[in-house]
Amino acid sequence: MDEPKYVFVIVTVVYVFVFIFGVLGNVLVIYVVCTLRDMLTPTNIFLVNLSVADLLVLLVCMPSSLVEFHAREVWLLGAAMCKMTPLLEHTVAHTSILTILAISFERYYAICNPFEVLYACTKRRAMKIISCIWIFSIAAALPLFFMTETRRTKHLSGEMVIICRTPVRGELRVGFILVKMFMLFLLPLVILVVLYAIICRRLRRHVLKTTLRTHGSRRQVIYMLITIIVLFFICLFPIKIMTLWSIFSSSQDKKAMGLEGYLIVLSFTRVMFYMNSAGNPVLYNIVSTKFRNACRRAMGCGKQPLQKTGSISRQYTHVTGSRRPSRTDFQETNRQDYKRSQERIAMASVIHVSNHLNSKDIVEC
After folding, report:
1. What's the mean pLDDT in 206-218?
2. Which residues pair with residue 153 across a beta bridge?
């Protein structure tokens, strides 16, 4: 059977598009957060970790996948790369879901248990959590390094070629794949649904007790995080189904699919997996106003935040026109400014106690 050429053309174009936008977008996220000090928050540190993981997938796994695809499943990159590619793909997938869980728990504490947020959500603690996430993710994916192998087999053309496969034979290997899928895909999904249901319920309950700006900031952050979660599970769901099908389907089922059907399904699952790595920066720009403004500032295209001027010039421009304020005027204005500042501090304390959370506890991503 002739190989469908249109599949290779479409897949190549999509791969190149996803690669370019994914690399540029994730580099931009890292640059913006690391350049602007006000963006270096615990939540954004976790998002940078997501971008680093996505960059590894795009720069290492995606090119090797495209080479293998154009080589008609013949492996040309050596035994070491054959073992490293699935290890890195699964490590990054684990890192992504665990990072999303960490962000979600951080938001849960910030909104539902605000008195614990300073303890639970510091930059140093975020870095420690990220280190633990990477160690655990590598450990969970390490068995795949030993399961994956290169072997010689007869190609469709009749020639003997080298392929790269991760055979799942025996109860132990099947059990490992199923447990890993449950612990690092299905269970996190359930936890995230429960967490955000609680968070959304809390936000609706306290909507009348908070300022419009504070509530809008909270809602925007939660909306962005929910969108990231939905993108993650939608993009990884097809490859999980493909994995289960390859484990439990018979050889007759695979032959019945045909070469064209197999290539289309395989290409779709891989493209969806890589789109998750390229899609997060797009979501940040679409959903988050603060991130869009930060991008403009980092690129020198937006206005830098202006320092607030005192009320002296505003007050006397409005009241006295061009009259130069006297020393008595300055003293009176200073007393008024001090009184207003004390009133603002007192009001902020009242709001913090009544709402259990002030606007600074919400990290606008």
Report:
1. 58
2. 161
Is the pLDDT higher at 170 or at 216? Answer: 170
Question: Among all chains, which residue has been given the structure tokens 């490992």?
Answer: 176
Q: What is the DSSP string of 270-339?
A: HHHHHHHHHHHHHHHHHH-HHHHHHHHHHTT-SPPPPPPPPHHHHHHHHHTTTPPP-HHHHHHHHHHHHH
pLDDT at 355: 41
Q: What is the pLDDT of residue 322?
A: 43
**What single DSSP character describes residue 168?**
-
Q: How far, CA to CA in Å, does 214 sit from each of 103, 155, 222, 272, 363?
A: 19, 62, 12, 35, 11
- Identify the CA nearest to 239 among candidates 287, 274, 188: 274
- Where do the structural domains in the chain lie, given as residue ranges? 5-302
Nearest to 265 by CA among 5, 9, 11, 2: 11
Based on its alpha-carbon atoms, the radius of gyration of the chain, rounded to whole angstroms, reads: 27
pLDDT at 139 over 90: yes
pLDDT tens digit sequence for 63-93: 988 888 888 778 988 999 999 999 999 999 9
From residue 115, how far is each of 43, 74, 136, 353 by CA, in Å?
Answer: 17, 57, 29, 10
Residue 324: what pLDDT? Answer: 47
Residue with tokens 């009259």: 323
Exposed/middle/buried for residue 92 (C-beta within 10 Å: 0-12, 13-18, 19+): buried
| CATH number of the domain located at residue range(s) 5-302 in this protein | 1.20.1070.10
In a 13 Å sphere around the CA of 125, the CA atoms on its Cβ side amount to 12
Show contacts of 288-291: CB within 8 Å, 24+ apart.
Answer: 288/220, 288/221, 288/224, 288/364, 288/365, 289/220, 289/364, 290/364, 290/365, 291/32, 291/365
Higher pLDDT, 205 or 106: 106
Question: Between vectors from CA 240 to CA 238 and to CA 246, what angle results, nearest 5°?
Answer: 100
